[in-house]
């Protein structure tokens, strides 16, 4: 299938393709990664639908949207898996998934499961002043960081938002030199030190492999 643009994944998400027995309900920011994993591993039993990636900015919308998606698609699939971590829902998504009897990815957010939840737990206290970007967020840096914070209109607010951060860590899912350069430019734009950390797909891959 042709992957929609990042802009479409941000605002609209991705409809299911009706070509698998198990449906993954995911954040639009994970569409490319999940489809790449599906293709690389021959997971033809999996289908994918994505909620708009911009729910990353409005986490209070995630739980109800997942509920609605499960209700909409449940009768068409043998099982459903939710490819979200807690993602700012304060435990509400986990409670909803338990109530709906569907499984989800463990962890507080995608930065944790890309790093590997166990590893992230070990280093998180030492990285309190770290700002993270993934492949998707590097590509959509203006749409998810600059514009929502008003930094395109009021760049002088940068230090108010990021003054307590020390470095930007780019958690790379893929080996893409162009994205590394863009991520480095993002760090410079925010006045932060830069670290490129290749994580691959982390616990996302491990979770999907068990479905």
What keywords describe this structure?
211 residues; single chain; 3-stranded parallel beta sheet; globular; alpha/beta; 4-stranded parallel beta sheet; 11 helices
What does this structure look like?
The strands form two sheets. A four-stranded parallel beta sheet has the order 2-1-3-4, sandwiched between helices. It has a three-stranded parallel beta sheet with strand order 5-6-7. With 211 residues, it is α/β, with parallel strands linked by helices. Helices cover 42% and strands 17% of the residues. Helix 3 (62-73) packs parallel to helix 4 (92-100). The model has no long low-confidence stretch (mean pLDDT 96). Strand 6 (167-172), helix 10 and strand 7 (193-198) form a beta-alpha-beta unit. The protein is built from eleven helices and seven strands. The protein has helices at 6-11, 31-41, 62-73, 92-100, 110-115, 117-123, 135-139, 141-146, 158-162, 177-190, 202-209; strands at 22-27, 46-51, 79-83, 103-104, 130-133, 167-172, 193-198.
Write the layout of secondary structure elements.
Layout: H1 6-11, E1 22-27, H2 31-41, E2 46-51, H3 62-73, E3 79-83, H4 92-100, E4 103-104, H5 110-115, H6 117-123, E5 130-133, H7 135-139, H8 141-146, H9 158-162, E6 167-172, H10 177-190, E7 193-198, H11 202-209
Parallel strand pairs: 1-2, 1-3, 3-4, 5-6, 6-7
Helix pairs in contact: 3-4
Q: List the helices and strands in order.
A: HEHEHEHEHHEHHHEHEH
Helix content: 40-55%
Q: Which value, in Å, is the CA radius of gyration? A: 17 Å
**Percent of residues in beta strands:** 15-25%
Number of strands: 7
Class based on secondary structure composition and strand pairing: alpha/beta
- The poorly predicted ranges are none
The major pleated sheet works out as:
4 strands, parallel
Number of helices: 11
Instruction: Give the termini separation.
Output: 21 Å
Shape designation: globular
Question: Please, what is the average pLDDT?
Answer: 96
Strand order of the largest sheet: 2-1-3-4
């Amino acid at each position: 299938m042709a992957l929609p643009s990042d802009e479409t994944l941000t605002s609209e998400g991705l409809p299911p393709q009706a070509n698998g027995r198990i449906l993954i309900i995911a954040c639009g920011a994970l569409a490319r990664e999940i489809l790449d994993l599906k293709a690389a591993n021959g997971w033809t039993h999996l289908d994918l639908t994505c909620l708009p990636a911009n729910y990353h900015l409005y986490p209070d919308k995630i739980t109800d949207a997942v509920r609605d998606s499960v209700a909409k698609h449940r009768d068409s699939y043998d099982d459903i898996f939710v490819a979200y971590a807690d993602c700012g829902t304060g435990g509400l998504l986990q409670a909803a998934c338990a109530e709906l009897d569907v499984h989800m990815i463990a962890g507080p957010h995608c930065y944790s499961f890309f790093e590997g939840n166990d590893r992230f737990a070990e280093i998180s206290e030492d990285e309190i002043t770290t700002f993270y970007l993934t492949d998707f967020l590097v590509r959509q840096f203006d749409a998810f960081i600059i514009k929502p914070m008003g930094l395109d209109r009021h760049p002088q607010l940068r230090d108010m938002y990021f003054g307590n951060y020390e470095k930007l860590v780019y958690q790379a899912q893929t080996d893409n030199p162009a994205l590394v350069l863009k991520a480095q430019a993002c760090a410079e734009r925010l006045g932060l030190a830069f670290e490129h950390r290749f994580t691959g797909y982390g616990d996302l891959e491990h979770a999907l492999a068990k479905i």
